[in-house]
């Protein structure tokens, strides 16, 4: 495959016959797919978890065990990745049994026609893509339908928004992402989420939806849905958008404008590389950080960036910023203006920073008791 050929995604082939694996490799790679090869269930599982293929072709009668064991293990955590069983004609009963465990199709061995591999794959991917798109549209439609109900009962809207929030502390390698957003009787204008992309990378986003609490609850749910869809594509279709914060801004701009919100939200998206200790981030009119907490002082790193507002003018260009993260210089996103954040940072503290810093920053100031507050801190935990 030439360098100019488009990579259509990654396929995993698990088969004990080297000649058959090579045949599958040549067929798929000739049409632009990246192919991972394995000869056992153990190798197949390693490839699946490390490489996240968009489809799996697995021999039913592997040398070490039955291919259906690979299928059963994968289906414990993944119900959707297309799985095709490769079976000898004499073992059709086994192939049909695999369908009951969650395989989508089977192909007889040897291949009567090499094109069958491609036709099977393309049919499954079309069905999978359509199913995911249908699920996305259904989820957004349900949120739209419940919009009025959220408006009538703001306490319920607040609980709904709170149910979407991630765990308050997320560790990856030597790093910790901690956040605080106290529960209120009405929805918070801010919303955030944190999710792992791999053993090395973790992403997060923070949105500011403005002064309408009902719109904030509705938009929080919608944003969660579309980011979950982007994460699914990242895991199963080798899509790498989530590794490029500036691309995420343009993508989010499209989806958020389709919601017809009363106010154009602000958004920041970050990507933490735990191996190298660096964070990339991009922002759309978001002026709540990041700041660097350092020796009882702060350094503003904020790059608010262009708005997400949809206009007929040329689409805005979002910048990708990058910064090193270590235990002495955690990155802080906070509702507090830079001047107030600096005032807190200059208060007497112990030699070590407050642990976690997010606990301190989530406490509203005296004149902000009833206001919307949040904090998110990225730093090392050991």
From TrEMBL:
Residues 10-124 form the Response regulatory domain. One of its GO terms (biological process) is phosphorelay signal transduction system. InterPro entries: Bact_response_regulator, CheY-like_superfamily, PPM-type-like_dom_sf, Sig_transdc_resp-reg_receiver. Residues 126-153 form a coiled coil. Keywords: Coiled coil, Phosphoprotein. Pfam families: Response_reg. This is Response regulator. It comes from Neiella litorisoli.
